[in-house]
Amino acid sequence: MARKRLELLMGIPVLSITESALGLASALIDKKAVPQRYAEDASHISMATVHGLDYLMTWNCKHIANAQLQRSIGVICRNAGYEPPIICTPEELMGV
Predict the structure, then answer these.
(1) Where are the domains positioned within the chain?
(2) What are the angstrom distances between the C-alpha of 19 and each of 15, 38, 50?
(3) What is the model's pTM?
(4) Which of 12, 32, 79, 88 is deepest in the core (most CB within 10 A)?
(5) At what angle are helices 19-30 and 39-50 packed, to 10 degrees?
(6) 56: Cβ–Cβ under 8 A, 6 or more apart, which residues?
(7) For residue range 22-70, what is the model confidence (pLDDT) as tens digits?
(8) Rounded to 5 degrees, what are φ and ψ at 7?
(9) Residues near 92 by Cβ (< 8 Å), separated by ≥ 6?
């Protein structure tokens, strides 16, 4: 089963961790859009944003796909010069 999963991932690009992404993740935490103890969530958002992805799909509805946080995440990203991706669950993206 693990081998099949790895085969499915072949060809999907891996995003590089950049200083810009690290800085944006820090801003998301500093401005309290994402709690400090969930720094990995801030990193996911910042990586998708800095790399210009259209969508960030996640089942993490506590700190990433959270409608109450979307506005502040968007403001912080735009103030840093980036357009944030649409953050949604796979079901939302597929219209289920």
Answers:
(1) 18-94
(2) 13, 19, 10
(3) 0.86
(4) 88
(5) 130
(6) 44, 45, 48, 64, 85, 86, 87, 88
(7) 999 999 999 999 999 999 999 999 999 999 999 999 999 888 988 889 9
(8) -65, -40
(9) 65
61 three-state secondary structure: coil
Of the candidates 24, 37, 14, 31, the residue with the CA atom closest to the CA atom of residue 85: 24
* Paired tokens of 55: 């969508």
Residue appearing with tokens 């502040």: 72
Distance CA 7, CA 11 (A): 9
How many C-beta atoms surround the C-beta of residue 55 within 10 A?
13
Q: Residue 96's pLDDT band (boundaries 50, 70, 90)?
A: low
For 67, other C-beta atoms within 10 Å of its C-beta total 9
Distance CA 93, CA 35 (A): 25
Three-state DSSP class for residue 14: coil
